[in-house]
Design goal:
It is built from 3 helices and 14 strands. The protein is α+β, with helices and mostly antiparallel strands and about 260 residues long. Helix 1 packs antiparallel against helix 3. The strands form 2 sheets. Strands 1, 3, 4, 6, 10, 11, 12 and 14 form an 8-stranded antiparallel β-sheet that branches. A 6-stranded antiparallel β-sheet has the order 2-5-13-7-8-9, with no helix packed on it.
């Protein structure tokens, strides 16, 4: 009985959920939770970015605010990550919890992998749906000034998008492949929230906002895995703090102090 109880709780903590290769919680820094993984770098040309407290899905937490100007292009604000050694190919998934301020922007850039050299990237369309430009749209709207969890999976030939865990589109596309822009992006950079500064136009597709969580996976998550991703991540070491407590409960139960 003791073993079953412990393993039952252990199984809930150490579940078979896909393991992120990089997790960013924005709890006062831009560091990854995983040891040895690169930190995000702020793009903050007008010194408007900051950490602050917001209510995310009903919970008060620290988030990262990005605040810039759509024009001129060098005043857009966001984040950039060198994924060398984190994502090893064109097969990956990115999960982001963010909100865009109410704004008059046309498209709103979520992220791109061209090192800002192409307008082809992942956006919120002017009418609200998610879009991997220039392909088709999803059916549901990303409402402004509200928190959403957006997930994009890419397998090298297809991109699949999800809004708050719900399927939005499945497209044949290579525009989110790092290899498509290998010459322009040798460091395999992901730029979050800022638009392209060169290429075939669409240069001012930027909106201020806040981000609460970014997770990267070196695999293509399936729809069930995306739907089951938690909207928050336990604090680092939470499991290791839980284990002594479980052992104490079991020890007391053995002495007849607690029923199991």
């Amino acid at each position: 009985i003791l073993s079953f109880t412990f393993l039952s709780v252990f199984g809930q903590v150490a579940s078979a959920d896909p393991i992120a290769v990089a997790t960013y919680l924005f709890d006062g820094n831009l560091d990854a939770e995983e040891a040895g993984v690169a930190s995000l770098t702020a793009i903050d040309p007008i010194s408007g970015n900051s950490f602050r407290t917001e209510t995310v899905f009903g919970t008060s937490k620290t988030v990262y605010r990005f605040d810039g100007n759509a024009d001129p292009l060098d005043e857009q604000a966001g984040l950039v990550l060198n994924t060398t050694g984190i994502l090893t190919g064109d097969n990956y998934s990115v999960d982001i919890t963010f909100r865009f301020d109410a704004n008059s922007s046309t498209w709103e850039s979520i992220f791109g992998v061209s090192n800002r050299t192409s307008d082809n990237a992942f956006y919120v369309h002017p009418t609200g749906p998610l879009q991997v430009y220039p392909s088709a749209l999803g059916p549901d709207a990303v409402t402004q000034d509200e928190w959403h969890r957006v997930t994009l999976t890419n397998d090298g030939s297809r991109v699949i998008g999800y809004l708050d865990g719900v399927f939005q589109f499945d497209l044949a596309s290579t525009v989110m492949n790092f290899s498509t822009y290998a010459g322009a992006n040798p460091d395999r950079l992901i730029h979050f929230f800022v638009d392209n500064t060169s290429g075939s136009g669409g240069f001012e597709e930027f909106a201020d906002g806040s981000v609460s969580l970014i997770r990267l996976y070196d695999i293509t998550l399936d729809s069930g895995e995306v739907a089951d991703l938690p909207t928050s991540v336990p604090a680092p070491g939470a499991f290791y703090l839980l284990v002594p407590g479980l052992l104490l409960i079991i020890a007391k139960a053995k002495k007849g102090r607690l029923p199991l």
